[in-house]
Design brief:
It is a single chain. By secondary structure, the protein is α+β, with helices and mostly antiparallel strands. It folds into three domains: 46 residues, Helicase, Ruva Protein, domain 3 (Orthogonal Bundle); 120 residues, Tetrahydropterin Synthase, Chain A (2-Layer Sandwich); 68 residues, no CATH class. Helix content is 50%, strand content 17%. The strands form two sheets. Strands 1-2-3 form a three-stranded antiparallel beta sheet. Helix 1 packs across helix 2, helix 2 crosses helix 3 and helix 3 crosses helix 7. The chain starts with a helix and ends with a strand.
């Protein structure tokens, strides 16, 4: 059957695929619109399979919070090139995925991909469409959820770093921004000492012991010195124990207590594209 420009445009509007790809899909499926959509999805899957060995290290990192400030998410939608990452359509796509994550609050990335993108396809299927349209490996690189009495989000200019912070009570916009910027700038690995992954602690201790031995310290002093270096690591790398970046006379914990005695951070998530 004859493929009209209106048919091609309709398919293009729904899928976002290129004009020639839409025309070919309609020709291959004899003008069957639904079959043409499936054709494009399969093409996306084929492109994705061919690019599995490629690195998707660019992208868009976003943070969004519910209207009642009780839930926040950080989502990274990754691609291969900076050119695509800065494209307005790609940023809008990343925002749509982040909105779905915030509304549905899935448990993990796979659950997010299984959610409906619209009435016709899942989030995972939509990614395949985008792969077919753009020709790059595109995926969800990070997703995390924070629930608290008061949650705030922060996106660093450039969309490459985002933070979500949960507090045990309401805070002013100034305090919220200061803490979010602290987490963004100082890259803590955990909230407090007890929250650090044991494998990180073991690695830091091992490095401390080896560097101490290399400095020629007596073996009976190695453990004590290593513990001291670990304590320094806690101060530099856990959010509540870091020096407050605006006034280093305070730790972050002390700054919060100066604002309100029982004010505390209950959780935070930070993700940055390297």
């Amino acid at each position: 059957m004859a493929i009209t420009a209106a048919d091609v445009n309709k398919l293009r509007q729904q899928t976002g695929a290129g004009m020639m790809d839409c025309k070919k899909a309609l020709e291959e499926t004899n003008g069957d619109f639904e079959a043409a959509v499936d054709f494009l999805r399969k093409k996306g899957a084929k492109v994705a399979a061919n690019r599995q060995d490629r690195d998707a290290k660019e992208g868009v990192v976003l943070s969004k919070v519910t209207a009642d400030n009780k839930v926040g998410v950080v989502v990274s939608v990754n691609c291969e090139t900076d050119f695509v990452a800065k494209n307005a359509d790609f940023i809008a796509f990343a925002e749509s995925i982040t909105n779905i994550a915030l509304e549905k609050q899935p448990a993990d990335i796979e659950a997010l991909k299984a959610l409906p993108y619209n009435n016709d396809i899942t989030v995972g299927d939509k990614f395949m469409e985008q792969v077919a349209k753009i020709g790059e490996k595109i995926d969800i690189g990070f997703y995390s959820l924070v629930k608290a009495e008061n949650v705030i989000g922060y996106i660093h200019p450039g969309n490459r770093l985002a933070v979500t912070v949960g507090f045990n009570k309401s805070v002013s916009g100034e305090v919220a921004k200061n803490i979010a910027m602290q987490a963004a700038a100082m890259a803590p690995v955990a909230l407090d000492k007890d929250d650090v992954d044991p494998t990180i602690i073991a690695r830091e201790l091992e490095i401390a012991k080896e560097t101490t031995r290399a400095e020629g310290k007596p073996e009976d002093m190695v453990e004590k010195i290593a513990q001291g270096k670990l304590n320094k690591f806690y101060k530099e790398s856990t959010l509540l124990n870091q020096e407050y970046f605006i006034d280093n006379k305070f730790t972050v914990r002390q700054y919060l207590q100066s604002v309100e005695k029982d004010l505390n951070i209950t959780a935070f998530k930070r993700f940055s594209l390297s």
